[in-house]
């Protein structure tokens, strides 16, 4: 009897994303879209001119977050995603812009549709936490 892999268990999600090379492709498409889409302009302005470091950090973070090697902590140390991002005033609109770029980047990957849906659902959770942490720090009113 063959068992079905379950996303979120062991390294199933990491492997479904194509390992670190698959994550690097996802992140490259994500930041390219952020550069190109007019509706992502405000989000892009929060980043430096070069996206090289941000790209590496996001791919490394996603590696560990999806059950693969903990590359972020190995290379950059520990991070608490919501509190780190709270240094910027991130509201619902910026969060949605980030999610929209990621959703489009996900559709460009050769992911199984069930994994693509799972990944985007999972990414909504930290995006919501980042908005809340930013509200708490900057006094941004809830929407």
Automatic annotation (TrEMBL):
Instruction: Give the matching CDD domains.
Output: TrHb2_PhHbO-like_O
Q: Which Pfam families does the UniProt entry name for this protein?
A: Bac_globin
Please provide the record's keywords in A-Z order. Answer: Heme, Iron, Metal-binding, Transport
Identify a single GO molecular function assigned to this protein.
heme binding
Q: Which residues cross the membrane?
A: none
Q: Which family does it belong to?
A: Belongs to the truncated hemoglobin family. Group II subfamily.
Annotated protein name in UniProt: Hemoglobin
């Amino acid at each position: 009897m063959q068992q079905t892999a379950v996303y979120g268990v062991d390294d199933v999600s990491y492997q479904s994303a194509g390992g670190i090379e698959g994550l690097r492709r996802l992140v490259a498409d994500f930041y390219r879209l952020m550069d190109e889409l007019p509706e992502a302009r405000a989000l892009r302005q929060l980043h430096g001119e070069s996206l090289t470091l941000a790209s590496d950090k996001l791919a490394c973070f996603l590696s560990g977050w999806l059950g693969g090697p903990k590359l972020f902590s190995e290379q950059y140390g520990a991070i608490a995603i919501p509190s780190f991002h709270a240094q910027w005033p991130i509201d619902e609109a910026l969060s949605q812009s980030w999610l929209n770029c990621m959703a489009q980047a996900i559709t460009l990957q050769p992911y199984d549709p069930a994994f693509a849906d799972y990944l985007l659902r999972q990414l909504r959770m930290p995006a919501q936490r980042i908005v809340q942490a930013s509200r708490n720090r900057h006094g941004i009113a809830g929407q």
